[in-house]
Amino acid sequence: MSEPRDPATLLALADATVQRAAEALRTQVKEVAALIDPFPPFPGAVFAYGIEVEPPGGGDPDLGCVILGNDGALYELSIGLDTTQTALGAGASGERHEDLRPLDLPPERYIPYAHAAIATAAAYLEGGRR
Fold it and tell me: In this structure, is residue 106 part of a structural domain?
C-alpha cells in the first residue's frame, strides 16, 4: 500500500492532469478545424468565419459569443455598429464592426469549450456540410 499524499501534492498532480488534458484538446481542436473546408461564415456576420461553441450547461457568463475559428483557436466575437458615425449619416454597413478577440483561457476554463468545439465541429462535418 502506498503512503498517503499530502493535499498540496494531490493538488499539484490534479493541476498537471488538467494541463495535459487542455494541451491534448488544443491539438484536437486544431485538427478538427483543419477538416472544415471551406470554413463557414458566422451567421449574421459579414467578415467573421467560425462556428459557435457553447459548452453543456451554458458558457462562461463573463464571455460573449465564443466561436471556433478556422485556425483552431477559440475567439470571443462581438458585432456592433458605430452609432456615432451612423447618427452623423454614415451608412450602417460601413460603420459595422466585427471584433474577434482570441481567448487565452486557463486550462480548467478551456477544457469545456474545447470539448464543445470538437463536438460542434464533428456534428458540422457529419452533417455533410464539407
Answer: yes
Q: Note down the domain range covering 29.
A: 7-126
As for how many domains the chain has, the answer is 1
Q: How far is CA 43 from CA 40, 49, 55, 67, 106, in A?
A: 9, 9, 19, 11, 28
Question: Cα–Cα distance between 73 and 13 in angstroms, integer?
Answer: 27
Q: Does residue 24 form part of some domain?
A: yes
Is residue 2 a part of any domain in this protein?
A: no
Q: Is residue 54 assigned to a domain?
A: yes
Residue 38 preceded by cis peptide, ω within 30:
yes
- Supply the pTM of this predicted model: 0.83
Q: Any idea which residue has 458615425 for its cell? A: 85
Q: Is 79 exposed, middle or buried (0-12, 13-18, 19+ CB in 10 A)?
A: middle
Q: What is the pLDDT of residues 53-95, one digit of tens each?
A: 999 888 888 999 999 999 999 999 988 876 665 555 555 555 6
